[in-house]
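Input chain follows. Return structure tokens only.
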Amino acid sequence: MSVRKAAVVLHRALWLLFAVQAVASVVVDLPYPYWAGWLPALAAGALGLALMATARRKAAVLSAREPVEVLPPVTGRWSALNSPADRTPSHGTHQYGQTYAIDVVAESDERPRPEFAAFWPVMRPSRDFPAFGAPLLAVADGTVVRAEDGQRDHLSRNSLPAVLYLMLVEAAVRAMSGARRVTGNHLVLDLGDGTFAMYAHLEQGSLAVRPGDRVTAGQELARCGNSGNSTEPHVHFQLMDGPDLDTARGVPFTWRGVGVPRNGETFEAGSAAYSA
């Protein structure tokens, strides 16, 4: 285990210890002073700052790297959210190799994407969204190194009460549970030359490949779902410099024929690009 991996695991364990004793203190008297209960949180905070500083330094080095050109992971009409064309890190953190990650949601005239609700409906079934079940394609030739699709697809979090629940409760629990609970069902491809592609929030039971499989550009790998830390069915895609989400760093990318769409930009990804 690398030093960074050990630090990440320790950081997660300290927050978990703090949460457990906070809950336990409601039921029983803890055998140590009140102030001592805050030590795990303080240690976790300090370690977290050190990890973020290290991540920023590595990200600065990788930012000088030329974007890796790959094919889009989807076909059809999509819109971009949380795009690195608008800011980096695109998701507000370098954690889990997300520096240059992008989220895309499907657009459909026949089945319009439900709008964000102030209060009702609080949550919606995943099937109400046009992205749910959309095929996800290999962006280049590569080898599957990680693949998981056993986690459930939950209801949407696209209302004010649901987003508050996600931010204040669910996201914290998922973060303490590890990267796989944040990404949900996910897939990692080794594209060669130290570059790895990660697809997150896959539909439960949709994987068409398994670790060790060789895949070709354009091959269907899985389907879009709503597992993990997700507000609605969408595709989270990123390139990174390693297969381990706890230690990987983001790598800039560009999609052939599309570029890097900005937040709110709608784009068409044609299947013809895969046969070019």
